[in-house]
Amino acid sequence: MRTVWDFHGGIHPEENKQQSTQFPIVDAPLPKKVILPLQQHIGAPAEPVVLIGEKVRTGQLIAKADGFISANIHATISGTVVAIEDHAIPHASGMTDECIIIESDGQDEWIDLHPVKDWENADVETLLNKIAEAGIVGMGGAGFPTAVKARTRERHDIDTLVINAAECEPYITSDDMAMRTYPEQVIEGAKILCQLVNPSSCLIGIEDNKPEAIAALEAAAKGTHIEVVVVPTKYPSGGEKQLIRILTGREVPSGGLPADIGVVCQNVGTTIAIYKAIAKGEPLISRITTLTGSAFTRLQNFEVRLGTPINELLELGGFKNSLASRLIMGGPMMGFSLQGDELPVVKTTNCLLAPTHQEFPDPEMENPCIRCGMCEQACPAELLPQQLHWFSKAQEFEKAQLFNLFDCIECGACAFVCPSHIPLVQYYRYAKSEIRREDEEAKKAERAKIRFEQRQARLERQEAEAAARRKARMSASAKPAAKPAAKANEAATTAVDEAEQKKLKIQRAAAAVSVKKAEKALAEAKENNTDNLTELEQNLKGAQQKLADIDSKLGSAKPAAKPAASASGQVTEEHEKALKQAKIAAAASKAAIKKAEKALATAQEAGDTDEIKAKESDLATAKANAEKAADKLKQLQSTPPAAPQTNAAASEEHEKALKQAKIAAAASKAAIKKAEKALATAQEAGDADEIKAKEETLTIAKANAEKAADKLKQLQAAPASAVQPTSDSAQQAYETAKAEHEKSLKQAKIAAAASKAAIKKAEKALTAAQEAGDADEIKAKEDILNTAQSKAEAAAKKLEELKNNPPAAPAPQTAANAQTPEGSQAASSTEDDVAAREKALKQAKIAAAASKAAVKKAEKALQAAQDSGDAATISECEQTLSQAQTKAQTAADKLEAVKASQAVEA
Amino acid sequence: MTEFFLNHPVLAAVIGLLALAAAFGAMLGYASIKFKVEGNPIVEQIDNLLPQTQCGQCGHPGCRPYAEAIANGDDINKCPPGGESTMEALAELMGRDPMPLDADPEDIGVKKVAYIREDECIGCTKCIQACPVDAIIGATKLMHTVIEKECTGCDLCVEPCPVDCIDMLPVETTIKTWSWALPEGPNARFKGQVIATDGGQA
Ligand code: SF4
Ligand code: SF4
Ligand code: SF4
Ligand code: SF4
């Protein structure tokens, strides 16, 4: 006889097991439908692999284990999957969870079963896979996936396998009856488990209140190394840690696993399921469930298909609702009350207990703790339940954890003995769930913190990058201006030099870094006395050499331009300065155009119309600026009288401009093509808004193309005058002014278009407001619309004004001051005019934009009104719209007229 | 040498002490360089107590700035998402007296999560820019959505939305987040799920 240890505490509640052991296990009738929760185990819920409406057969896999700790779910009857939805499940919260619901066809057609033949010689992996496939979980209560537990051998040395047959909780007899009925299955299952974990001993721990089961098992175990160990009846000897203590005398460490001390423990029910899976190929689709409690008339154990609705079982057991005080899943100590009977039997449902009021009276009133210490004596986990209770109540969770709250197995022994009827376990459950929640929150907070910090870092980086870009731009335009005494030729080469210098500077920075690195490496090496010192020194020397090279290049690049700049001395310094600045301005504006074009391209790729519009206007402005700059430059270059070199430069400039114009024309053609394409796609997609947007883009692109073509023509016609050194500067100034005016008009047109868009937007907003039926909102929107419309009107007026005020007549000035610096003065006075006009135009543009917005708004409002069907509103809106449209029309007409007049002038 | 010390015991003691002082001074100096603690650990500790909702309700742009402010003497009662418990933890850490929370009682400790009514979203990306923890995903002109798991419920994305399609919904209890209620204490019956274990004899 084996020595049997004892564990601390424990209680002796009335067993009440005899009621349900009078009759043998019977198969419960096939349920009409089954409800199979996707999570009947600890770990991740399974992932459904069937579709609604699919026909399934008994034993077919319907949900696959998802993750390492998870378990398969199988169809437990044959029939049709009718739903995969949230359904109430047996859980203390009474809440719902995702379930697969199958309606029976009454056939119970099984899939083909594939047992592991000759499992005695099968390898461990095959057996484990089969167990995992069968979806077996711990059937004693917790529902931990068995295959995972059986794998512990991979990480621990296991010397003892314990089959938990204690079944210590009152009322429950499912394991008892299973052992009486299928002792050989238990033994076979234990053998399979032995093969899996390869222990030196295999013990079946069984309480001495089950003599029939003990006898049956002992008979079946004869001739094997499996030992049936009878232990004294005491609750909770079936607790895993307690049973291990009883059988082996070993103590599972706090927070540890049995595997840590070389033990694996499996429940009897699980053992039988393993046997069925390996030897018969049957997945876990049914279990033995005890129906007991005096509210049943038929107290018995049934083989129940998983997912069977509890109400079908209640009917089977002759449940009398009037008698029952409550319905409990599990035993009286560790079970929980059920809310409703529409719940399914799950893999861990070992008992349905329906006690009467005599058996289970309502809970007593909780009284204050009298510090009697009885709970401490009853606690099988050797905890201090009283202290835990105080800490949980005061929400001092940290202290509760210090007192090993998580070692509490929620056996209820303390609450059972408490004379003050304190629901101690509830306090612990509360504390445990609060601690888990706080942990979750702390984890989430940590994640949030990291995400916040990462975002912050990203924003800072972007800001720094933008600032660096700004700075680079600023310095690029400021540097050349800082050298006022530079010669004209230098200016001509500045752009090239600058690029070169930049490159050199970058190289220099890189070289400096590498020198520093080399120095550091050398220093480190010296410190550590490594033997590659010479190599490092060479590296350093090389790097330094490179740096020196670059420095000298940089130095020579700067002065190189100077000697070349031997311009004619007659040119005044001021003129030179002006020329230089103009060139710089031209270069800068070119850069701006390029940037704007790039931005536009990205915006078009991204497909954001607002963005595109904005970028296009940016581009237009940039181009206008560039034109201005080029004109000025041209003018300046052709002005100086006795500067033959500048003549050449001027013609060069002209050629350059011509080239650029050609390129621009080509680019604009490409843009048109692109816009057309985009329009086509938009039309295919059938998105009205998109189409409109694309059409706008297209028109703008076409306008740009026209502009480009015009410029090209102009330039081609102009060369003679440009090449001629004595060309009339006043005429050029006029041309500049005209161009300016034209540009301004164009911009005004764009602005007018934008304002139309704004009106449309406002209209849309109004529509939405009207749809929503919010009177205040509607009024507000109408106000906005009106303002926009009036603004549009104003813009239109200004436009007209502009149109009627073309640039100052060129004729009187044509013959005037030629070839002298005075000419440039005259030009600058014209420029002043231009600037003033430009300003006016800008304002007009803004106004026009606003008015367009108003029109759009009105349209939207009308649409909304039509949708809502309110006649009064409709007529009102129609009036507003027609007004807005007339205004827009006027603006457009004016623009058209301006364009025409400009064309004539050109 | 020994003789010299024996003849001048006072001098010997002084020299010995000086030598010790120099040795320990050097050790301490080395240790202070070698084991230098980076940053301000108290700010770190305060920051760890704050809920990291990053909502700015405390008047600071995020939890860490508020932690710095507390370290510099700001009040500890300005974080509504943290609620009573955070304030108490801060009081304990800082050795200050607990004080009533400076917030709407309705706002305190309510966990919320942003939800975008997706068919109304116009894809303006404004909410993405507002979210302090990058919990919103979407692209220009496309529907946006909130990563529920990462949303801290800070409320900052609601305001910028031009079409008001973001709601702050209270975080719903699911079967995974459900927790047992605290028994009411003496002189009450626990109504919950207590079974035979509560009443004594089963
Ligand atoms: S419920 Fe917990 S504290 Fe109470 S006796 Fe059981 S293990 Fe001990
Ligand atoms: S048994 Fe109940 S009354 Fe006695 S010390 Fe424990 S909690 Fe207090
Ligand atoms: S109020 Fe908001 S930002 Fe301030 S500490 Fe609390 S959670 Fe963080
Ligand atoms: S702010 Fe509103 S409309 Fe804009 S992307 Fe976010 S949810 Fe969509």
From TrEMBL, chain A:
Binds 2 [4Fe-4S] clusters per subunit. Its cofactor is [4Fe-4S] cluster. It comes from Oceanospirillum sediminis. Residues 625-634, 794-803 have a biased composition (Basic and acidic residues). Its main location: membrane. SUPFAM superfamilies: alpha-helical ferredoxin (SSF46548), Nqo1 FMN-binding domain-like (SSF142019). This is Ion-translocating oxidoreductase complex subunit C. Part of a membrane-bound complex that couples electron transfer with translocation of ions across the membrane. One of its GO terms (molecular function) is electron transfer activity. Its EC number is 7.-.-.-. Residues 556-568, 637-650, 811-821 have a biased composition (Low complexity). It is an enzyme of class 7 (translocase). The complex is composed of six subunits: RnfA, RnfB, RnfC, RnfD, RnfE and RnfG. Residues 428-465 form a coiled coil. Residues 723-734 have a biased composition (Polar residues).
TrEMBL record, chain B:
One of its GO terms (biological process) is electron transport chain. Keywords: 4Fe-4S, Cell inner membrane, Cell membrane, Electron transport, Iron, Iron-sulfur, Membrane, Metal-binding, Repeat, Translocase, Transport. It comes from Oceanospirillum sediminis. The gene is rsxB. Belongs to the 4Fe4S bacterial-type ferredoxin family. RnfB subfamily. InterPro entries: 4Fe-4S_dom (IPR007202), 4Fe4S_Fe-S-bd (IPR017896), 4Fe4S_Fe_S_CS (IPR017900), Elect_transpt_cplx_RnfB/RsxB (IPR010207), RnfB/RsxB_Proteobac (IPR016463), RnfB_subfamily (IPR050294). Binds 3 [4Fe-4S] clusters. Residues 1-32 are annotated as: Hydrophobic. One of its GO terms (molecular function) is electron transfer activity. This is Ion-translocating oxidoreductase complex subunit B. Gene3D superfamilies: 3.30.70.20, Electron transport complex subunit B, putative Fe-S cluster (1.10.15.40). It comes from the Bacteria. Part of a membrane-bound complex that couples electron transfer with translocation of ions across the membrane. Its cofactor is [4Fe-4S] cluster. It is found in: Cell inner membrane. [4Fe-4S] cluster 3 binds at residues 131, 151, 154, 157. [4Fe-4S] cluster 2 binds at residues 121, 124, 127, 161. GO terms for cellular component: plasma membrane. Its EC number is 7.-.-.-.
